[in-house]
Amino acid sequence: MKAIVCQEFAPLDQLKLSDLDTPEPGKGEVLIKVEAAGVNYPDGLLVQGLYQLKPETPFTPGMEVAGTVAALGDGVEGFEIGDRVVGRGALGGYAEYAVQPARFVFKMPDGMSGADGCALMVAYGTSHHALKQRAALKAGETLVVYGAAGATGIAAVQIGKIMGATVIGVASSEEKRKLAKDAGADEVIGYDDLKADIKRLTGGKGADVVYDVVGGEAFDAASRFMARNGRLLVIGFAGGDIPKFPVNLALVKEYAVVGVFWGNFTMYEPQVYTDNMKELFDWYSQGLVKPLIEGEYPLEDAAKVLERVLGRGAVGKIVLKP
């Protein structure tokens, strides 16, 4: 089979399309003939050795795939050969065939595209967990979403609206702000004067919840415009800088800084994770959530696509097509 291979931790342009043996599923695993492989920000960090996890090299990146069941490992029940499914693992997605743990594989609802299925796994899965379990977002609260035109940002905007929040999307260009508005944001702003803008839009109260995938100066601004009892969600650092947090602000303003690590959540709370995915699939079937798919690219374009994602040039979801 064809697959993208990371021979050693190195710049993205060192990724190569190679021929590998088709893997066989082990006990409790499913082999998926890949229709679409989702591209995620952590994939680009992983192949450079910059992520929390550092797998042994060589390896094939890619944590989410959609396609059809090609083979079942021992002990796997509930699936048949030919079922259309989505699945996630740590590695192996950028390939024509991928093995995924059966506990993280879900049948796709009728009419769901492979690209949409991939988007619902990590991007929507992260945002859903962040807002539901970590922030406990309530109807009537104000949610500020950084990176509101990205895959996770659009997911957070849509999920925030489903949960009854007033959503303020933050994005770096007029084009991206329009996408956030189209996704359902009540207001859209840029990063130039965040504290003043959020105070103005909330009548001086500040934000109840901030969904922060950016870090850096954007995090610093959020730490100063949080409302009392607010929750500042730390999800990622797409801006490149990991901020230093002045803890005195949490004391005097009485808000919480809350870490969100979706991968850990899926491992430690598998039943809650399964329930979350069922809810997301139900929302999709009802038309309440709809991923924005920016593009579908051949496997050999993996390095170029990852460059765009890490450079914050991408909007919505991008998938690779074997």
Topology, element by element:
Elements: E1 2-5, E2 16-19, E3 29-38, H1 41-47, E4 64-72, E5 84-88, E6 97-101, E7 105-107, H2 114-121, H3 123-134, E8 142-146, H4 151-162, E9 166-170, H5 174-182, E10 187-189, H6 194-201, E11 207-212, H7 216-225, E12 226-234, H8 247-253, E13 256-259, H9 262-268, H10 270-285, E14 293-298, H11 302-310, E15 317-321
Parallel strand pairs: 8-9, 8-11, 9-10, 11-12, 12-13, 14-15
Antiparallel strand pairs: 1-2, 3-4, 3-6, 3-15, 4-5, 5-7
Helix pairs in contact: 1-11, 2-3, 3-4, 3-10, 6-7, 9-10
The stretches of 5 or more residues where confidence is low (pLDDT under 50) are none
**What is the CA-based Rg, rounded?**
19 Å
The CATH architecture term of the largest domain is 3-Layer(aba) Sandwich
| Total discrete domains | 2
* CATH third-tier fold name of the largest domain: Rossmann fold
The number of E-state strands comes to 15
Walkthrough of the structure:
The structure is a single chain. The chain is of the alpha/beta class and 322 residues long. The protein folds into 2 domains: 2-108 and 292-321, Alpha-Beta Complex (Quinone Oxidoreductase, Chain A, domain 1); 124-263, Rossmann fold. It is 33% helix and 26% strand. It has 11 helices and 15 strands. Strands 3, 4, 5, 6, 7, 14 and 15 form a 7-stranded mixed sheet that branches. The protein has a 6-stranded parallel sheet with strand order 10-9-8-11-12-13, sandwiched between helices. It has a two-stranded antiparallel ribbon with strand order 1-2. Strand 11, helix 7 (216-225) and strand 12 form a beta-alpha-beta unit. The termini are close together. The model has no long low-confidence stretch (mean pLDDT 95).
